Fold:
Amino acid sequence: MHAVTRVEVVEAVKTAFTLTAQPTVPKDLVAAATASGARPAVVSVLEGLDDDLQFRRLRELWEYFPHMPVNSVDAA
Structure:
């Protein structure tokens, strides 16, 4: 099984980031990933985020996953 990548996370959670005043929270990310059919490893990574975190932009996630490879080529 290959490592979870940033590209994979983006594809799984992009629908969680909408143009609303409300920030996105980890449970929103898990729900979006599950709904998108993300593989269990992606959902598991997102479930590991602290419940009290809030994200206004998708790129804020990378602060919590600094060593996550960008894509499968980088993961090799």
In short: Helices lie at 6-13, 26-35, 40-47, 72-75. The chain has one domain: 6-75. Residues 6-75 form one domain. The first helix runs from residue 6 to 13.
